[in-house]
Design a protein that fits this description.
The chain contains 4 helices and 7 strands; from the N terminus they run αββββαββαβα. By secondary structure, it is of the alpha+beta class. The radius of gyration is 14 Å and the shape is globular.
Length: about 140
């Protein structure tokens, strides 16, 4: 199957989770939302393989996630399947309210830099897992 570069990043990230004992399944919310049983969490993944690193966070998907009884996070991948930003649902909702512009296509348009100033990127799957575990503390 021929996957786009962004989809390859997402697929690679999910493979890394599995290699670290974390299984996933697709959700019915969006093709970019997965259920992580071990975390009891939904994960909304967006990927960018090339500059500029701008993602499209769909307003309708965020609304569905906010309506869900399940905890959720967002992961914004860039360049490699093990590099990106982990955002809690509170982070996403803060950025939507205060920072990210809403485009005519219904997507919020975060980018690296000041658009993600509250978050530090992870550079390995282990860093992702550590960041996720720190959200639970």
């Amino acid at each position: 199957m021929n996957l786009s570069k962004g989809n390859q990043l997402t697929s690679g990230f999910l493979d890394l989770l599995v290699q670290n004992g974390i299984s996933y399944s697709r959700s019915n919310i969006s093709r970019n939302v997965f259920s992580i049983k071990e975390f009891s969490t939904l994960i909304y993944i967006k990927s960018r393989s090339e500059l500029p690193f701008k993602w499209g966070i769909t307003a309708n998907v965020v609304s569905k996630l906010n309506s869900s009884v399940t905890n959720w996070i967002s992961v914004l991948l860039f360049q490699k399947p093990y590099t990106g930003y982990l955002l809690s649902s509170d982070d996403v909702n803060y950025y939507i309210k205060n920072v990210w512009p809403l485009a005519a296509d219904g997507d919020y348009k975060p980018a690296t830099g000041s658009y993600l100033s509250k978050n530090k990127p992870f550079n390995s799957i282990q860093e992702f897992i550590q960041q996720f575990n720190s959200l639970k503390d």
